[in-house]
Specification:
It is built from four helices and 20 strands. The longest helix has 50 residues, at 90-139. It is an alpha+beta fold. It has helices spanning 3-27, 90-139, 145-191, 237-240; strands spanning 30-35, 38-53, 56-60, 65-70, 77-78, 83-87, 194-196, 201-206, 213-214, 219-224, 229-236, 248-253, 261-268, 278-285, 297-314, 325-332, 335-346, 351-356, 363-365, 378-382.
């Protein structure tokens, strides 16, 4: 063998080695990460909203006046009936005194009218007795007709006096009732000079200070009922259809991003926002929070259902993703194959539920790479459970 033949043999051997190396590289078992079926997977819908109170009130005095006392401030918790503020009530106290005096006066007038009726009745009884005696004497001619007529007239006058006295009592009683009603009105008006908490509440705002001249109904405090704190969340209409009242939920406050507080859906408003195409959903705390900030931003995760046994794949691993379908790489009998699958629920972390198109023992590749080809052998690295 000459040198030329030796050179050609060496080149051929090198080509065979290179071809073998390339073939081994191309057809070697490629490592892939696959997903395993998971049990009891929660399907959730996300909503963004704010902390609010179902019972919130702006309270003030029913009468006008000057604010002379403040007993509560922002952040205070007050019991129902607690005094929060007072107006200058000197003028109203004087009116109340006059009303009491008027009641006493009308009651005295009533008593006098009652006494007058008693006197009139006595006079009438006496006049009637005299008249009856005179009428008998006239019949026996023992008294003159003139004296009999006089006795009859006196009786009629006494009877009229009884009627007048009875009328005076009715007038006095009416006056007494009016005076008592006026007293009740003035007493109530005096009470209106004191502002009390209508329910157990927390004060979230105080809008007036001492010395302020207030008009009737002008707010002094804003209060909320701590037991009615909830989150009003806005949910995209396309995601809100499966949410039901009573569904469990989790609340995450912006001030506590690592803490999830349990709650539940208590109200789904029937009218959506026509501009933003969102639905307002109220989520109440399972236990009313001890501390809260009205208006704080909150995230809400509402569970619509649980998947008992689900195969889940990341969106990035789906080829040609459509509304309810797509193509994935699956591992069957240790080799790769592309499969058209049907898709179900989409989780908040971007994974989709595969509902059809896979063999019972197939696994789905969760990370795409350039080495994936139909029929290629694989080495499976199972994706960690979430």
């Amino acid at each position: 063998m000459n040198s030329k033949q030796i050179l050609l043999a060496g080149i051929a051997a090198a080509i065979l080695v290179a071809a073998g190396a390339v073939g081994w590289w191309i057809w070697r078992a490629v490592p892939v990460q696959v997903t395993a079926s998971q049990r009891d997977v929660a399907v959730q819908v996300f909503g963004l909203g704010t902390v609010e109170a179902r019972i919130a009130s702006k309270i003030g005095f029913k009468v006008s006046g000057v604010l002379v006392d403040l007993k509560a401030d922002v952040g205070d918790r007050v019991a129902k009936g607690a005094t929060l503020a007072s107006l200058d009530d000197r003028e109203q106290t004087a009116r109340l005194g006059r009303a009491r005096a008027a009641v006493e006066q009308t009651e005295a007038t009533l008593q006098r009218a009652i006494a007058g009726l008693a006197k009139a009745e006595v006079n009438y009884a006496n006049a009637r007795t005299i008249n009856e005696r005179r009428q008998k004497l006239v019949q026996s001619s023992s008294a003159s007709v003139e004296s009999a007529e006089t006795a009859k007239t006196v009786q009629e006058a006494a009877q009229a006096d009884v009627s007048v006295a009875s009328g005076d009592i009715a007038v006095a009683r009416a006056a007494t009732g009016d005076a008592r009603a006026q007293l009740q009105q003035e007493t109530a008006t005096l009470d209106f000079h004191t502002l009390m908490a209508p329910y157990d509440a927390m004060i979230t705002a105080r809008s007036k200070e001492l010395g302020s001249a207030l008009a009737a109904g002008e707010p002094v405090f804003t209060i909320v009922d701590p037991k009615t704190i909830w989150v009003i969340a806005f949910v995209d209409e396309s995601k809100a259809g499966e949410i039901e009242v009573g569904a469990p939920a989790e609340i995450v406050l912006r001030s506590r991003p690592n803490e999830r507080v349990p709650g539940k859906v208590v109200r789904i408003e029937p009218e959506s926002d026509r501009v933003n195409e969102e639905r307002r959903i109220a989520v109440a705390y399972e236990r009313p929070p001890g501390k809260f900030n009205i208006g704080e931003q909150a995230e809400v995760y509402m569970t619509t259902r649980h998947l008992s046994n689900a195969v889940l794949v990341p969106e990035a691993a789906i080829i040609g993703l459509a509304k309810n379908s797509g193509t994935v790489w699956a591992v069957e009998n240790g080799r790769l194959a592309q499969k058209s699958v049907t898709l179900g629920h989409r989780l908040l972390d971007g994974r989709y539920e595969i509902t059809g198109g896979l063999a019972p023992d197939a696994h789905v590749v969760t990370a795409l790479s350039s080495g994936l080809r139909d029929g290629r052998a694989v080495r499976i690295d199972e994706e960690p459970r979430r």
